[in-house]
Amino acid sequence: MSLSIPLPTSGPSLPPSPPQNMSTLAAACNDDSGKSRAGSPASVCPNSPPTPPFKEVTCQGDMDHMDVTEDLLTEREAQSQDAPPHDTQTAPPTPAVADAVLSTSTSALPSPPLRKSALLDSANWSILTHSPPVIGIDTKTLVDAIDFHYSTRLPRVDKMFPWLHGLHPSNVNQRTFLHPNRRVNKEFTTEFIPNNSSFPVSQAPGASTPLPSHKDIPSEVRGLIIVKANRRQVAANTPVQYNGFGHAMKGETLREARHSGSIIGTIFLEDFLEGDAEKEDFQDKFKFLDAPEGISLRKFQIQVAKWAVISDIVLYDSAEGLTPRLLRLAEIVSGAQRRFAAENEKLHQVYRTFVFTDSITQLEQEAPHTVTMSHNLSPDEIDEQRLKNWDANLLFHERVEISMMSTATPIACDVWLGNTTDFDAYTASLSAAKQAKQVNKHHGDIDAAAVKAPANWVTIIDCQENARLVPLAVLDQYIREAEACIVDPSRRLSPLQLGFPSSGSIPIQALTPENVYSIINVCKLIYLRSKCTYGGKPAASLVFCNDGYTETSLLALIFLMYSTGCRAPQAWVDLHVQYKRPFFCFPIDVTVASALQTALHKYSPALNEKLSSGAEYTGMPPNLMFLSDDEDNGSVRHEDSWFNHFDGSVPSRILPHLYLGSLDHASNHGLIQKLGIKRILSVGEPVPWAMAEDADEDEEIDLEEEARKVAHDPDLVKLVRQTQERREARKHLSRVLYVSNIQDDGIDEITDSLAQCLDFLDEGYRLGEMTLVHCRVGVSRSATVCIAEVMKRLGVGLPRAYLFVRVRRLNVIIQPNLRLMYELVKWEERHRDQGEGWLREVDWHILCREIANMNRVYIPE
Question: Region (Disordered): which ranges (predicted)?
Answer without folding.
Answer: 1-63, 76-95
